[in-house]
Amino acid sequence: MNKLIYINTQEWIRLKFFQIIIFISFVFVCFSYLLGSLSFTEQQRLVIDFGLAGIELALVFIAAFFSTHSLHRDIDRKTILVLLARPIQRWKLIVGYFGSLALLNLITTIALGLTLGSFLKESRHVVMFVVALFFIYIKSLIIGAFGLFASVVARPMFAFVLSLTYWLVSYSIEDIKFFLKKSQADNTVLNMLLDNFFPQFYKYNWKTFGFVKTIPNLSDLSWASVHSLFWLTLFLMFSMVIFRRKEIV
Predict the structure, then answer these.
(1) Is the dihedral of CA 22, 25, 31, 36 positive or negative?
(2) What pTM, to 2 d.p., does this model score?
(3) Average pLDDT over residues 17-21
(4) Within a domain: residue 249?
(5) Which of 81, 86, 180, 233 is the most exposed place for a label (fewest CB within 10 A)?
(6) More confident residue, 94 or 37
């Protein structure tokens, strides 16, 4: 399993898609600094807000693309048949794909985080900056786990779009509920679906300078950690169960 994670990570780092996303994200982080330099009073806020938003976009795109294409890439190249011919359980393949994704996004998070962190002016903001980066990383892993689940039951491109849509809806639940309420229709079922079938990303949208300069709220951090772990585990379990029954042709 460790060898599978290592090989997959190496292959995906060499892909132009990954290199382009990293380059664009690095440019975006640097652009946030240039944008912040135009303001004398809000420089730090603009740098952190735009920088963290760029990092999350990069991680989500990498997670969505990698998770939805890795399995089908091995199926199309027939390398999956070589793996399945060995005495290895299928759930370990899912763990291997997810492990590669986690390692890939960790490298990306550290590289972009160090770049953005070099623009911090006060050392007291470092702790909450790291916390913000950590939860951005965790949310990207949730989208990656959802992408693996979607890729088991759908084609890669559809699963990729579905994963990005799932991420957007998870941030927009309150806005969607507002529009549903304005429609003056019975939206009980839709509200139930939004509350129970989507992670509540909007409740810990901490990629802002306002969060970075605050004192940590342990109850919020604990809730966000448990909530994220639940969704991450749920999607991985669904992926393993369905992939176990999937016919590889």
Answers:
(1) negative
(2) 0.89
(3) 71
(4) no
(5) 86
(6) 94
- The answer to whether residue 33 is domain-embedded is yes
Number of domains in the chain: 1
189 belongs to a structural domain: yes
Query: What's the one-letter identity of residue 46?
Result: L
The token duo for 32 is: 């946030």
Does 8 score more than 70 pLDDT? no
Which 3 state secondary structure label does DSSP give 85? coil
For residue 135, what are its two tokens? Answer: 């939860």
Q: By CB neighbour count within 10 A (0-12 exposed, 13-18 middle, 19+ buried), where does 75 fall?
A: middle
- Distance, in Å, from the CA atom of 163 to the CA atom of 235, rounded to the nearest integer, reads 12
Contacts of 94 (CB under 8 A, 6+ apart): 148, 236, 239, 240, 243
Look at residue 236 and tell me whether its pLDDT is greater than 60: yes
Average pLDDT over residues 12-28: 72
Which tokens go with 146?
């959802």
Q: Is it the case that residue 44 has pLDDT exceeding 90?
A: no
pLDDT over 60 at 245, yes or no: yes
93 in helix, strand or coil?
helix
Answer yes or no: is 187 within a domain. yes
- End-to-end, the C-alpha distance of the chain in Å comes to 23
CA 149 and chain centroid, separation: 14
| Rounded Cα gap, residues 150 and 195, in angstroms | 20
CA–CA distance, 83 with 248 (Å, rounded to integer): 12
Which residue type occupies 228? S
Give the tens place of pLDDT for each residue, 161-197.
Answer: 999 999 999 999 998 888 888 777 667 788 888 889 9
**Structure tokens belonging to residue 89:** 């359980």
Task: Tell me the percentage of the chain whose pLDDT exceeds 90.
Answer: 35
